[in-house]
């Protein structure tokens, strides 16, 4: 019988897992080197979207052809630290291959199985915790300069529609009714209903964690330097044991997975945000600025613009170019944008070559469960991962198909 569980990593994934396990009656200990809600977590600085319809991975048919242009064009939202390329190649090649038509079908279906009920999952997790007030239900829009840019996104929109995520097309006149401050550069939009967003991801996480702690959930603040079937070793050399151990260490997961001989292949897709505190312009709901590949989200106290992708690993300092791109592009959306203060942030999306997280136990280590790698949608699917891991640990029967997420699939 499972009584004691250790969960390493206190981002949205780990906090969702510990709270679900606590509710199921387990004696749970969360372990992290920093506090939940800390700016060093990816869960701190995301765009806040509960992106139910985000079932199209970054790698899609034809991406390889577009990459060279994306890399040399300073207006494009893809950045690379060139010295990092040799380290990136073993990940990049299978990542690009995963964009084939056949693989895409399988990936989209698997992603949908995680995202489709994400707003309800967040509401269920946060109900009665003090975190619920940070959930806003509403639409998710995609803003395009013109019909051509709108048409270029047709592939993804059609797949989404086939999964039941329907959209409404907006003309320039509709956009003006929606938000008169949006500049005339943007003439087309697609709006998906029944989404949601978090109005302060850090406070949301802190509220969930405080609730878990107030009801007896334990926390050890330490780095984990080693892991075995039913134990972890803390930085001070102390070993802590349990019936089950969960790895939820986001973009840093290769370190512990490697100790268990798991080829986890998590790469950091670095992303950035600019927070315009006291912004005089805020869209009515989150808008993906399609030509900048970032989302402008109304958040508590201002406007957060978060997104773009940079490959450069976990250690390199933040770059200026991605921030400048977001800064420039948001001025194209809102030319009269004014604010009291600008805050910047960089974080690490935990991304696998096939864009699917690793969920489940590890060959040879039946009592270790992986729960990481939810790339661009980790906030969206965090509570779902919490339920799934709890189901696995308690051996509950479920009709969820875990096969696409097997932890040993990159052997
Ligand atoms: C710019 C940007 C925008 C985004 N926008 C969205 C969005 O709108 N919607 C969405 O769904 N997702 C979004 N994401 C993705 C999402 O933020 C991540 O997928 C998610 O936060 C990952 O959560 P996590 O709990 O797995 O990892 P993290 O939040 O990074 O937490 C991992 C934790 O593990 C701890 N840890 C690691 N190694 C160890 C160790 N050895 N010992 C102890 N502790 C350890 C770390 O300290 C950290 O606290 C965005 C990401 C970025 C960068």
Which ranges are low-confidence, i.e. pLDDT below 50, for 5 or more consecutive residues?
none
Distance between the termini: 31 Å
The whole-angstrom Rg is 21 Å
The fourth-level CATH homologous superfamily of the largest domain is D-Amino Acid Oxidase, subunit A, domain 2
Ligands: flavin-adenine dinucleotide
What integer is the average pLDDT? 96
CATH topology of the largest domain: D-Amino Acid Oxidase, Chain A, domain 2
The share of residues in helices is 25-40%
Indicate how many domains the architecture comprises.
2
Structural class, by secondary structure, is alpha/beta
Report the top-level CATH class of the largest domain: Alpha Beta
Give me the CATH architecture of the largest domain, please: 2-Layer Sandwich
Number of helices: 13
Task: Give me the oligomer status.
Answer: single chain
Give a count of the beta strands, DSSP E runs of length 2 or more.
19
Major sheet characteristics: 10 strands, mixed
Strand content: 25-35%
Shape: globular
């Amino acid at each position: 019988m499972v009584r004691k569980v250790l969960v390493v990593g206190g981002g949205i994934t780990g906090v969702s897992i510990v709270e679900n396990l606590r509710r199921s009656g387990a004696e749970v200990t969360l372990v992290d080197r920093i506090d939940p809600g800390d700016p060093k977590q990816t869960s701190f600085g995301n765009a806040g979207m509960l992106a139910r319809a985000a079932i199209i991975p970054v790698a899609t048919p034809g991406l390889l052809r577009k990459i060279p242009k994306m890399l040399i064009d300073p207006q494009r939202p893809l950045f690379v630290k060139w010295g990092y390329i040799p380290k990136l190649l073993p990940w990049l090649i299978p990542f690009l291959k995963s964009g084939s038509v056949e693989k895409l079908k399988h990936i989209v279906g698997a992603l949908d199985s995680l995202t489709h009920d994400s707003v309800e999952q967040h509401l269920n997790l946060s109900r009665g915790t003090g975190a619920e007030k940070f959930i806003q239900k509403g639409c998710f829009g995609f803003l395009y300069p013109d019909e051509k840019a709108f048409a270029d996104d047709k592939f993804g929109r059609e797949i989404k529609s086939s999964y039941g995520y329907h959209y409404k097309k907006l003309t320039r006149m509709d956009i003006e009714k929606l938000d008169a401050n949006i500049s005339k550069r943007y003439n087309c939009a697609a709006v998906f209903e029944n989404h949601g967003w978090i109005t302060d991801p850090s406070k949301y996480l802190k509220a969930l964690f405080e609730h878990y702690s107030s009801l007896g959930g334990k926390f050890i603040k330490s780095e984990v330097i080693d892991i075995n079937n039913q134990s972890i070793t803390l930085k001070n050399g102390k070993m802590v044991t349990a019936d089950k151990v969960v790895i939820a260490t986001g973009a840093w997961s290769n370190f512990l997975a490697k100790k268990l001989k798991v080829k986890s292949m998590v790469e950091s897709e670095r992303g950035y945000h600019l927070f315009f505190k006291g912004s005089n312009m805020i869209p009515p709901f989150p808008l993906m600025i399609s030509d900048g590949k970032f989302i402008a989200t109304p958040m508590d106290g201002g406007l957060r613009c978060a997104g773009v992708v940079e490959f450069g690993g976990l250690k390199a300092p933040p770059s200026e170019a991605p921030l400048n791109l977001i800064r420039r592009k948001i001025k194209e959306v809102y030319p009269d944008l004014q604010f009291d203060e600008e805050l910047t942030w960089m974080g690490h999306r935990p991304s696998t070559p096939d864009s699917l997280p690793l969920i489940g136990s590890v060959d040879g280590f039946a009592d270790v469960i992986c729960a990481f790698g939810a790339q661009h949608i980790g906030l969206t699917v965090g509570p779902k991962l919490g339920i799934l891991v709890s189901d696995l640990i308690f051996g509950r029967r479920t009709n969820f198909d875990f096969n696409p997420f097997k932890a040993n699939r990159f052997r």
